[in-house]
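Re: beginner question about structure tokens

> Can someone show what the tokenized structure looks like for a real chain? I only ever see the sequence side.

Sure, here's an example I had lying around. Input first:
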Amino acid sequence: MSCTQVSAEVLNRVVAIVNDQVITLYELHTTMQMTTGLSYKDLRERSEETYLETRKKILDDLIDQKIGLEKIKELKIKVSEEEIDRAIEKVKEDNQLTQEDLVKELKRQGITYESYRETVREELERVQLINLEVKSKILLREEDIEEYYNTHRDEFTSEGRVRLALIFLKQQDPADKKEARALHNKAREILSMIRNGEDFADLARKFSNGPGAAEGGDLGVFKMSELNPEMSETIKGLSAGQVSEPIIMPYGVKIIKVVEKEGGGEKSFEQVKNAIRAILYRKELDKKYSAWIKELRKKSYIKIVF
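And the corresponding structure tokens:
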């Protein structure tokens, strides 16, 4: 038997039986990594005690999931792709996120968009299950929402963002002062065309030697903290739609356009109260679901094999 076969058998070893379902060591290790961001080996190396506590908690959660899954199948609860789409759109709307923001945040947490969709599916199925089985209404008071906002203000502070476009005229010989003057004059001509109503994107496609020229000079969206000090200073006084004066650089001249500009700062209660409502609702949901699962556990066959 090869080492690969032995490894596969170890990973596929059953660690728990829940009625007619099993939980494998591979499933346990994978869930631990998704939850903590660390492999089980790294967790164990850091602290044996923490590893054992984490393993026990995650195994308990997986057992609860299996019990809930059985009930979902028994009741033939199904969630459509459209329902998942709507739920994700609501998350984005409540948190004022773009699709790009969401994917970036998931990537930062080590989660793929596909696995996130599966998590949303499971949450929606669980909500339906609770609505059918628990039959308890969750009531959230406005005072609770306001209290959460007042005690978690740092969570609702956004950083300013800006979308930029660029026209860059490259200087072939940085030491050639004549070429530098000609480029600067050309930049002034282009700026005059822009101010006379010509389209910045069309001029970028025609004249720019810089990044994004084929896309009309589009550089994309940046957080203000991602810009270098020089760029920050250049666009500080510009509003959306405005264009900078020609900026002389060692290797050419550039003109910057602020396509979109969104100021940062603390979001108002009105802007985030729906997001807070969703957070508190989920907490209450988890609490009621946990109590209900405990009752189901008493009626289930559970055997942990370690």
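Each token stands for a local structural state, so reading them left to right follows the chain. The first helix runs from residue 3 to 11.
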